[in-house]
Specification:
InterPro entries: BatD. This protein is an alpha+beta fold and 594 residues long. It contains 8 helices and 30 strands.
């Protein structure tokens, strides 16, 4: 009885499988192209799906002329049973971005099914001008491209040679996305420019507009350039790798958007400026390359003095311009004045508008003879880029009166020396007679020889020599222990910045800057690595090598990440207190293990 039932079941299953096989053999192969739309704007996206009802091999897509592939191919397979009939579908999907306007053809795709090659039917797509509100769903990379911009703002596109040009690199971020981290990939080099960086001490987020839209932005780098040659000069781009959180179309239980993380490489792009040469027409013969707006003067510390006394003569240029890139005019002095080589002084600060301040040559002058010595005027010429003209300034004549001293034997007018120096001449009044009578008296005190003080002075070197040897060796040991000094200094800095972080509790930027410096200096002391070598991967590798447990390693890395994220994300005082307590705990744990 059981064998009969089993036999019937097997027969039914066989017949059922045969029916399905015949149904599949009778089913015609379908291979077709489906488009998300047949007409789209230049700023929209096109989804292309190639669907087949039988599995195949060697799928070959078209070349998608007129489009750029943003994503794909992605595969999707579905199968189902409906009323005893199996349904199968396999799809290859692409997301495309149009590269220009016009009518384009999505050409044939091919696939091999059961040894036969099948082709899709070509389809036309019309690309129009950009639309105000794209209707398609963008990928995370698309959203990042539209909401993240690295811009190099150049103050002047056609400056003169040696005229200041400022470049400010700004990262514009839309309020809809969040930047969690970034690192520079390639810093620009400024060939054919004299450059001066203006340090950015903290990355403060500000509100602004870019291309008419509201953005948050951060100034990453500021530099002032002085072109040193004329013609077309290129400013190389700044490139960054950025990790950011992008919203998706999904929402959580509370209705808040769910974010996905992606990495993007952005660049400020090459910038070219046309540098104008300084005009030759009207250029003064004493022009030394000064460009800007300046004031010029020659002053002396005194106008009346005695022979062999000294005075200070100062040649000074003050104003805005390339103060470090030109020579000051030389001071011409009468030959009867002894003039020493000048001391150069510089008090210049650099802002986005260029160099500001003053430079000077300070001459020490010593007269040898009585008389009046006029210091003739000297000239200083510069080019003013605002007025596009050369300007020449002249100092006033200064008269130096020497009231007492020997008279110039030559008499007459006082010549101007070509080298501003004159040999020193001795006069009779400069020497005195030596006293011949010493007026000495005999000593009646106890003789020094053989006294207690004599023996103390005689033996003291023998006592001092061992102490000097011990002290010298100790100083040599301390001086040779470079690594030890660095470790002590780093330990001291770590404690200093940890204390500073505790004092700055509640001030987000100051707290996390101090905390990050404390962590870095602690590692510098414990692992003997330079600050330039810091990276999370290297720290993890070093901790693993030192057999530090995962809990301490993860805690240290998470603190570093929090210090970086604090630049762009709001952190409460509770979070700061937690991070400070965690830093104390992690450092204590590392002290025991290292």
């Amino acid at each position: 009885m059981k064998q009969t039932v089993l036999h019937k079941v097997l027969v039914i299953l066989f017949l059922f499988g045969a029916m399905i096989g015949f149904a599949q053999e009778d089913e015609a192969v379908e291979f077709e192209t489906n488009l998300s739309k047949e007409k789209l704007g230049l700023n929209e996206r096109l989804r292309v799906e190639f669907t087949m009802n039988r599995d195949g091999d060697n799928f070959t897509p078209p070349n998608f002329e007129g489009f750029r592939v943003l994503m794909g191919p992605s595969q999707a397979i579905s199968s189902s049973w409906i009323n005893g009939v199996k349904s199968y579908s396999k799809t290859y999907s692409y997301t495309l971005a149009p590269t220009q306007r016009g009518v384009f053809t999505i050409n044939q795709a091919t696939i091999v099914i059961d040894g036969i090659t099948y082709k899709t039917t070509p389809k036309k797509v019309e690309v129009t001008a950009a639309v105000d509100k794209p209707s398609d769903q963008l990928t995370a990379d698309d959203i990042a491209d539209q909401n993240l911009h690295l811009v190099a703002e150049v103050s002047k596109s056609n400056p003169y040679m040696n005229e200041a040009v400022s470049v400010v690199y700004k990262l514009y971020v839309s309020p809809t996305i969040n930047v969690s981290n970034f690192r520079p990939l390639d810093n620009p080099t400024y060939n054919n420019f004299w450059s001066q960086d203006i340090p950015v001490t903290s990355y403060s987020v500000k509100n602004g507009t870019y291309e008419g839209k509201s953005y948050r932005y951060v100034i990453l780098k500021r530099v002032v350039l002085y072109p040193q040659k004329s013609g077309a000069l290129e400013i190389e781009p700044l490139s960054l790798e950025i990790t950011l959180d992008v919203p998706t179309n999904r929402r959580d239980f509370f209705g808040q958007p769910i974010y996905t993380q992606t990495n993007k490489t952005v660049s400020a792009g090459n910038r070219t400026i046309e540098v104008q040469p300084l005009p030759q027409e009207g250029q003064p013969s004493d022009f030394s390359g000064a460009v800007g707006s300046f004031r010029f003067q020659v002053t002396t510390s005194k106008s009346t003095l005695k022979a062999t006394e000294s005075l200070q003569a100062v040649v000074e240029v003050e104003g805005n311009g390339n103060l470090k890139l030109f020579q000051l005019p030389a001071l011409e002095m009468p030959g009867s004045l002894e003039v020493y080589e000048p001391e150069y002084n510089e008090n210049v600060r650099t802002t986005l508008s260029g160099m500001q301040g003053k430079v000077s040559n300070n001459y020490t002058v010593v007269p040898s003879f009585k008389g009046n010595y006029p210091i003739p005027p000297i000239r200083f010429s510069y080019f003013d880029p605002e007025d596009e003209t050369y300007k020449t300034l002249s100092s006033e004549e200064i008269n130096i009166e020497v009231t007492s001293g020997p008279l110039e034997s030559s008499g007459g007018s006082i010549p101007i020396a070509s080298n501003n120096k004159r040999p020193v001449q001795a006069t009779g009044s400069q020497f005195h007679f030596i006293k011949l009578s010493p007026d000495l008296t005999p000593r009646t005190e106890t003789p020094f020889f053989g006294s207690l003080n004599y023996y103390l002075f005689f033996l003291s070197p023998l006592l001092i020599i061992p102490l000097a040897i011990i002290f010298g060796r100790r100083r040599e040991a301390i001086a040779s222990d470079v690594a030890g000094r660095k470790i002590k200094r780093a330990n001291k800095l770590a404690r200093k910045y940890l204390y500073k972080a505790r004092k700055a509790m509640g001030e987000k930027d100051e707290f996390y800057i101090a905390l990050e410096k404390a962590l870095h200096n602690y590692l510098k002391a414990k692992l003997k690595i330079e600050t330039t070598e810091f990276s999370k991967e290297k720290i993890e590798a070093l901790f693993t090598k030192k057999k530090v447990d995962e809990l301490a390693t993860d805690g240290f890395i998470s603190l570093l990440k929090n210090c970086e994220m604090a630049r762009y994300s709001p952190f409460s005082q509770v979070q700061m207190q937690q991070d400070y307590d965690k830093a104390i705990e992690v450092i204590s744990s590392l002290d025991k293990q290292l």
